Amino acid sequence: MYIIITPIKEKLKEDLVNQYHITIGQYDHIYDWFSKTNEKFVFILDEWDSIFYESFMDDQDNKKYLKFLKELTKDKSYIQLVYMTGILPIAKYSSGSELNNFNEYNFINDRKYTDFFGFTDLEVNNLCKQYNEMKYEELEYWYDGYYTMDDKKLFNPRSVTNALSNGYCDNYWTETGPMSEISDCIENNVDAVKKDVIQLVSDIPVKIKLEGYSASNKELKTRNNILSAMVIFGFLTYHNGCLYIPNHELMLKYEEVLSRKSMGSVQDIVERSERILEATLNEDEATLAKMIEDAHDKEIDLFHYNDENSMACLLTLCYIKARDDYYIRREDKSGKGRCDMIFRPINDIPAIIIELKVNDTPESAIQQIIDKNYIQEVESNDEILLIGISYHTNSKHPEYKHLQVKIVKYK
């Protein structure tokens, strides 16, 4: 830790001596250095918490770093203002009394500075007009999904900036630091959060009362700690008491997490998803029905035939790799209602609309797609595949636990 703190102290000492021509004794404390100047100072510490993700830092180093910040800034007469930015909540959650003298502001619970967190939808709209290369709807799909305390929508500013600069949307989320840590955390505690992750990937919100997360929570073991950390780092959004995956950019990161071996049966389904999409595009009804049935028979307690949300979760996993080629919406408003799943192609491939039917026929599902004009959302595409999937919840029905699939090429 001293390889970090010592150079900082030496540089501070050098600057003060050069600027104020003071004499600093060998045993003088930091307080003495600044007090000899008879000045008031403003300290700006950007990304104060980034050091916690360095591989050489252990628990003792973390404590020494917090102690150093305390010695430098807490209750010092030479301090006019200390302005710190970062992800971790320093004032409320630093252990003991190291740094409890700060007012903390974040986009989850602050109203005073809420306009300065992220990009609002109005700002992104104006940027789209200014650059005239990107559509607002595309940026919204990729980077929206966060909320301020007063329910204003927020976009990821770094990703929006990169997309506008490069002229295309992509996954600009960093691959290092917290992202790697959270992925490892999920992998090592998969039983605690696997069900939550599957629901979130399926666009089903998870209700939870978050406890918070801080620099002192180096080991994330409980479900609440893990999910709280994911909100703090921006991998989830917390709104009206529920957790959500904010946008397409983050959804792609969760696809990577679900592909890990530690996810067990979930990984098996994810690995088969490319073949499931292939069977769909080939209009192979029998193969598609069997592959989805096989996926359902995996020992995943979230999947039940008597719960439509569970079936939606299953289909989301079955088609998760399709996100590389499609913008996928669940329960999306289109025409005269809400369709179960709509696949809007990125490239020149058929659009797909899927409708589930309980205790009915796949033909009835196809007819509902047509009657309620779900096609409206993708009618500009040259090819559209309509897929009806039916299943029965009555264990006495001859088709119980057997999916029926119908694929119709609309145009």
Summarize this entry quickly:
By secondary structure, this protein is an alpha+beta fold.
Structural class: alpha+beta
For the largest beta-sheet, the strand count, sense and barrel status come to: 5 strands, mixed
Query: What's the SSE pattern?
Result: HHEHEHEHHEEHHHEHEEHHHHEEEHEE
Described by the principal axes of the CA atoms, the overall outline is elongated
Mean pLDDT: 83
Number of strands: 13
Cα distance, first to last residue? 66 Å
> Are there runs of 5+ residues with pLDDT below 50, and where?
none
Content of β-strand: 15-25%
Side-by-side strand order of the widest sheet = 9-10-11-12-13
Rg to the nearest angstrom?
Answer: 26 Å
Helical amount: 40-55%
Number of helices, where a helix is a run of at least 4 consecutive DSSP H or I residues: 15
SSE diagram, text form:
Blueprint: H1 2-20, H2 30-35, E1 41-45, H3 59-73, E2 79-84, H4 90-93, E3 119-120, H5 121-131, H6 136-143, E4 146-147, E5 153-155, H7 157-166, H8 178-188, H9 190-201, E6 206-207, H10 223-232, E7 237-239, E8 242-244, H11 248-258, H12 265-281, H13 285-296, H14 308-318, E9 326-334, E10 337-345, E11 351-358, H15 362-371, E12 384-391, E13 404-409
Parallel strand pairs: 1-2, 11-12
Antiparallel strand pairs: 3-5, 4-5, 6-8, 7-8, 9-10, 10-11, 12-13
Explain what you see:
The structure is a single chain. The chain is of the alpha+beta class and 411 residues long. Helices cover 41% and strands 16% of the residues. It is built from 15 helices and 13 strands. It has helices spanning 2-20, 30-35, 59-73, 90-93, 121-131, 136-143, 157-166, 178-188, 190-201, 223-232, 248-258, 265-281, 285-296, 308-318, 362-371, and strands at 41-45, 79-84, 119-120, 146-147, 153-155, 206-207, 237-239, 242-244, 326-334, 337-345, 351-358, 384-391, 404-409. Helix 8 (178-188) crosses helix 9 and helix 12 (265-281) packs antiparallel against helix 13 (285-296). The chain is elongated and about 90 Å long.
